[in-house]
């Protein structure tokens, strides 16, 4: 009787494990992406000068991009800002003022399915479109005037573009080592490397980046835990910087004087 009871308990555990694993696999896109689509005729309203662009990629895909301009007509260069996994450009536009105040133009594209960007979303497409935006910036500003900036989900995207290009700087805010590595923190008993449809191996990309890299991460980040980002320290080059913001969380690093001081120093 005791053996039968143990066997039944094991069966229940296995069934529950499988059910949760299947749910995680099929729902991973919903966990990873939280887009908000906008109608083509939607009018943006921002507290600084901007220009909206719609860039056709092919018959099905369009990149929606907003350019934010500094008050001074003389530009130091351009910051390409690859944003996080929520809503669209509207959510992240406020962060561009830190760059425009220093004389930089900021280009912020939306990923497929976010805002007015149209087309099916895949990792390959996200990366290729991100690189396309950088190539456009090169034609306008030149490589040595481009700063790549990635926030949260966008850190993997920015790191990929940095590995393919020869820009001025790469800045990552609240990065992860890879998506499977991040998932393994939340679901350590599952084979996340095999289960993850999206990889974004930031740690691999950083090993190919030849120019300066700066990373910001808060020690109290409860979305991308600090230890998930700290793994990137081992692939940084001499001269690169990993800046820990004590008590910093996932969405409030801009509130900390250390972040603002370091970022201003980089931009100057």
Written overview of the protein:
The longest helix has 31 residues, at 2-32. The protein has one domain (33-267): Rossmann fold. The protein is 38% helix and 19% strand. The termini are far apart. The mean pLDDT is 92. It is an alpha/beta fold and 268 residues long. It has 10 helices and 10 strands. α4 (123-141) crosses α5. α5 links the parallel β7 (146-151) and β8.
Q: How many whole angstroms does the radius of gyration measure?
A: 20 Å
Query: Major sheet: size, sense and barrel closure?
Result: 8 strands, mixed
What does the average pLDDT come to?
92
Tell me the structural class: alpha/beta
- Give the strand line-up of the largest sheet: 2-3-6-4-7-8-9-10
Tally of alpha and pi helices: 10
How much strand content do the residues show? 15-25%
How many separate domains make up the residues?
A: 1
What would CATH call the homologous superfamily? Answer: Alpha/Beta hydrolase fold, catalytic domain
């Amino acid at each position: 009787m005791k053996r039968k009871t143990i066997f039944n308990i094991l069966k229940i555990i296995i069934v529950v494990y499988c059910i949760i694993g299947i749910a995680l696999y099929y729902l991973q896109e919903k966990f990873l992406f939280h887009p908000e689509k906008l109608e083509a005729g939607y009018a943006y309203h921002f507290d600084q000068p901007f220009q909206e662009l719609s860039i056709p990629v092919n018959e099905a895909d369009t990149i929606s991009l907003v350019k934010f301009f500094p008050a001074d007509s003389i530009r130091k260069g351009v910051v390409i800002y690859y944003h996080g996994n929520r809503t669209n450009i509207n959510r992240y536009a406020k962060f561009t003022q830190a760059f425009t105040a220093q004389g930089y133009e900021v280009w912020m594209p939306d990923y497929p399915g976010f805002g007015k960007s149209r087309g099916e979303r895949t990792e390959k497409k996200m990366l290729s479109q991100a690189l396309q935006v950088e190539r456009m910036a090169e034609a306008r500003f030149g490589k040595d005037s481009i700063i790549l900036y990635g926030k949260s989900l966008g850190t993997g995207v920015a790191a990929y573009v940095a590995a393919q290009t020869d820009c001025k700087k790469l800045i990552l805010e609240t990065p992860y080592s890879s998506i499977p590595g991040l998932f393994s923190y939340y679901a350590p008993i599952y084979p996340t490397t095999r289960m993850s449809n999206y990889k974004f191996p930031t740690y691999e990309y950083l090993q190919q980046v030849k120019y300066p890299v700066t990373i910001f991460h808060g020690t109290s980040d409860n979305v991308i835990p600090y230890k998930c980002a700290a793994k990137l320290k081992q692939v940084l080059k001499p001269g690169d910087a990993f800046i820990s913001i004590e008590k910093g969380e996932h969405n409030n690093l801009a509130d900390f004087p250390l972040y603002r001081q370091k970022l201003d120093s980089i931009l100057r």
